[in-house]
Amino acid sequence: MLHNEPVNITNCIAETSVVRLSSYRIFFSVSDESAFAIYKWNEEISSRLMQLVGVIEVTLRNRIHSAMSNSFQVGSTGTKYNNDWFNRISINSYTQEKINKVLKNKNKTPKVPTPTPNFVVSKMTYGFWPNILKVDQKSDKSRLQWEKIFPEIFPGLPKESNTYWKKIKNREAVIARCFSVGDLRNRIAHFEPIWKFGPEVEEKIPKHNVNPTILNPAPKNKKEAIARLSMEIERAIELLKWLSPSSHQDYLNSESKKSLNWLITEDALEAFVKHKEVSKISFNKSIKARRIKRLSEGLKGCSIITIEKQPIGVLFLYP
Prior knowledge:
Number of strands: 7
Strand order of the largest sheet: 5-6-7
Distance between the termini: 15 Å
Structural class: mainly alpha
Radius of gyration: 24 Å
Order of helices and strands: HHHEEHHHHHEEHHHHEHEE
Strand content: 5-15%
C-alpha cells in the first residue's frame, strides 16, 4: 500500500495508457496525474478483494461438489462426498462442453484413465458454479432435491422450513449474489475499475430479454462510488458467511479486511492522490514494542519499521 509519487510519473502514465486512465479522469474530474494515483488506489483495493473472492470461489466449489455428491450417491462413480454427480444432471450444451473438455480428448474420445471427480471440478471456472445452482433436473428428468442440497451448500443461511429452498424464487437472491461476485471477480481479473458500477438492481437471476428492476441509479460522484463499492464488498462478505461461518469470521479478523476498511474511504483515495509520504518509525533493540503505539500517534497509512536504520518490515497503521 505504498503510494508515494513515482520517480517518473509521466512515463508511468504513458505505460498505463491515457485511454485506460480516461474513465478515472472523467468520472473523478481530475488530471492525468491524479487519475494515475486513483488507478493505483483501485489496484490496491483489487488485490485485496481478490483474496476475498478467492476464498469464496474455493468454498463455493467445494460446498457444491460435496453436497451434490452426497445427493447422488446411488449409481455414481466415487465416494459419498466426491463422485461424478456432474454426469447425472440435466445441463445445457455450453456447460456440458466445459465438462467434456476435461473428460474427453480433442478427438472426443474419453480420456483413459477417467479423470477423477476432484480433478474435474478443480478445472471448472467460477461461472460454472452459479449456473449449477440453476439446474432443475437430473439427467433422468427427476427433480433435484434443492430443499436438502441448498442448506448443505449454504449452512450460514437463516434456518427455514424443510421445503423453503425447494422453490426457485426463494433461492434466487442467493444465486444472484453468486453471479454478482463472479462479475466482481472478472472485473478484478481484467484490471477494470472496481469502483465503476451501473444501476443497482434487485437480486434476481438474469433472464434473457427481461430487464431487472432498478433499485438505485448508478453512482455519479466519488462519494456515491465509494458507498456503492463498500456495499458490494459487504454483500460478498455476507455470501462467504452463508457458505462458511468459520471462514467468514477468519476473514473479518484478517489484515486484508482491515486494510480494505481503510482503503474504501475518501481519506484513503485522497491520500493516494496527494502521494502521502511513507512514515517511518525507527527504534533500536532496547526500545520495547509497546512504545510503537506512542511513536505512531498521528500516523496513518503505511509505516516502515527499522532497527538501527535497517528496514525490517512494514507496519500499516489505519485510522
